[in-house]
Each structure stands twice: as structure tokens, then as C-alpha cells.
Amino acid sequence: MAKVKLKKLTKKFKEVLAVGNISLDIEDGEFLTLVGPSGCGKSTTLRLIAGLENPTQGDIYIDGQKVNDLPPQKRNVSMVFQSYALFPHMSVESNLAFGLKIKKKSAREKQEKIRWAIDLLGLSGFEKRLPKELSGGERQRVALGRALVLEPKVLLLDEPLSNLDAKLRLRMRTELKRLHKKIKTTIIYVTHDQAEAMTLSDRLAVMRDGKILQVGTPEEIYQKPKDVFCAGFIGSPPMNFISGEKVPQVKDKNIMVGIRPEHLSVSLTKIAQAIPGKTSVTETLGSDNYLYVDISDQLISVRLKPDERIPEDKSVWLFPHQGKLHLFDKTTGKRI
Ligand SMILES: Nc1ncnc2c1ncn2[C@@H]1O[C@H](COP(=O)(O)OP(=O)(O)OP(=O)(O)O)[C@@H](O)[C@H]1O
Ligand SMILES: [Mg+2]
Question: Are 156 and 79 in contact (CB under 8 A)?
Fold first, then answer.
């Protein structure tokens, strides 16, 4: 376990600014996720921590020690890449042992470590199998195991679930969370999937264009996004944004109003302080149903109550729940 500190970290690839002056403190044993759209600098940040890239500016500390000049193998971190590759001709056991070979440990210690990983990751019975004889999730676990047997102080995971199908992704998500609870290693996780970030992490760092926009627990960011981008990126279906002059409670064209789908109710009769619209389609996701309402050329999503059914092409009035409006400055995008 270890603390990780990023201090004014910048990485430029010629004229491309991949990471722009980010500072972040990751606590001992924390599960922190860097989340943001493609190209925002997540992998580069992870590679800088791993020592696979050198910062253009700024410093990286692991447990108080500046590691800028330490080679990757001396940093006590393990990284699992997005396109993890197992050695195809080696059994599960040999794949797990591979990283340990370079570590000066006795044969017995190595054997114990491998046994520990096999039990921890539920790979018992698979020891002699080749990667091609495993399912995607099992292969994924071997890749994780390979990183874990090295007993890193910090585990760096770059979209480790992206090769899996939706169902397996969900299962591995739970497994990862359980694993973290057990081993308590500091984990820095990278994903562009906000749902994955929300469910796995102690805290998130929302990134955009090489910058960190907000750091906080999933609840904090969901309930109090600092700007329009964080508000729209975290949550599904995304927060609705309505120009202030259309919202009776606000009536200000300089303000952008954000309302989450679960904070709107629909009325089939006209009511004051409501936004008029026309119902479009309803999306059924099983447990949740979302109604889309057209308010002058803009579709607004509304989460319906479990048994609520509203017909299509009907005039309706939308009213936001008390105290649930998010107000943003239209010019700067910042929360007001
Ligand atoms: N070796 C490199 N040379 C030049 N530009 C690079 C290099 N690596 C990354 N970049 C650029 O830096 C920016 C950040 O890339 P990075 O891989 O960190 O993004 P990411 O957030 O991990 O994206 P994704 O979700 O698509 O993996 C991008 O604009 C990318 O094109
Ligand atoms: Mg990446």
C-alpha cells in the first residue's frame, strides 16, 4: 500500500498537450478512478506514474519518495494494460510465475504466491490450462493475477475490462471491488465508462483535455458537479440542460439549468411553474422507464415512477423537484 502524489504534472508530445498541470493526492489503499472521454489523457497519466513516460514538467511521489528518476521496475507499481497479453504457449501457472522470475525469491515463496493468486482469483483447477482454453473473464483474472503476485504498492489498471462482453464486465466489476476490499492495495483505475467509475471507486477524478476538472466521491460529483461537463458526463441518462429563460423558477437567459431525469415529474394537466412539452417515446430498461419530452426542439428525459405510463404525442407539463436544479453560468460553464 502507498500514497501517490502528482504535483503539477505535465506531459507534452511535441505540440500535443496530453496532460496539463494536474495535481492529485491518492490515499493509501484508495481506489481512485481517472474517468473522462477518449483522448483526455488518462492512459498518459497512468504511464507517467508507472514510469513508462517521462513528465515534461512536474513531480510524482510514491509514499513520499520522488520517483521521477526511478525506472519502472524500481517504483513498486504494476500495470495491467487495456490490451493485456498473456503468453499464449504458457499455462495459467507459468503466466503467473513469469513476473516472479525476475524477483529474487525462493522457489517455495514463488509457489506460495502463485497459489495465493489462484485462490484469490478463483482460478483453482485452471492451473495447467493455456490462455486459449479460458474464457475472457478467466483470462482477465490471470492478467490481474500476474500484476498482483508482484505485490505492488500501487496497482495501475488501464481499462482492464474493456475486452469483455457487457455481462462479464458487470461481473468482473463486482469481483474487482471485492478483490480491492480484500487486498487493500492502492488502485488507480482508468476508464471512459462513467458507470464503471461510479460503481468501483472511492473517489473519481473527472478529466477533460488533459486537465482534472473535479475530484470527489461518486456521490459528491453526482450531486454537486462543479461544471456543465462533469454534470453531463456523470450519470445515465445524462443530466438535462435547459436554458434558464425556459425554466419558470429561474427565468434568466445567462444561466444554464441542469436537471437529472429522476428530478422531474410529468403532469397531464397544466400547472403553473411547469415547462410545457409534448411526449415523444418511452424507453424501457426493465427496472427504470424513461420518458422523452419535446420542449421546443429539445428532448428532455424524465424517469417515470415504476408503474407510471404516459402516452406518446400528448401535451404535458414538466416540473422540477424542489431544490434539485443545478445552475451553471452559461458563459463559463461553472456551477453557480
Ligand atoms: N506517444 C504519443 N505521441 C503523441 N501523442 C500522444 C502519444 N500518446 C498519447 N498521445 C496523445 O495524447 C492525448 C492523450 O492520450 P491518452 O492515451 O492519454 O488518452 P486517453 O484518455 O487514455 O484516451 P482513451 O480513452 O482513448 O484511451 C491524445 O490526444 C493522444 O493522441
Ligand atoms: Mg487510454
Answer: yes
pLDDT tens-digit readout, 126-181: 999 999 999 888 888 899 889 888 888 999 999 988 877 788 788 888 888 988 99
Nearest atom within ligand 1 for CA of residue 34: 21
Residue 39 beta carbon below 6 angstroms from any ligand 1 atom:
yes
**Domain final residue, candidates 233, 263, 290:** 233
Q: Which of 194, 216, 233 is the last residue of a domain?
A: 233
- For the CA of 10, the nearest ligand: 1
Taking the whole predicted model, whether its pTM rises above 0.90 is answered as yes
Are 299 and 271 in contact by the 8 Å Cβ rule? The answer is no
Query: Residues 266, 199: one domain?
Result: no
- If you take atom 18 of ligand 1, which residue's CA is the nearest one? 41
Dihedral sign computed on CA atoms, order 311, 317, 322, 326: positive
Which residues are within 8 A (CB) of 294 and not within 5 positions of it... i.e. 6 or more apart? 277, 278, 279, 280, 300
Q: How far is the CA of 188 from the centre of ligand 2 (A)?
A: 13
The residue type found at 325 is L
CB of 18 within 6 A of ligand 1: the answer is yes
Give yes or no: residues 206 and 279 share one domain. Answer: no
Q: Say which CATH number the domain at 277 has.
A: 2.40.50.140
- Quote the CA–CA distance of 127 and 114 in Å, as a whole number: 10
Instruction: Look up the domain containing 249 and give its range.
Output: 240-329
**For residue 324, how far is its CA from the centre of ligand 2 (angstroms)?**
34
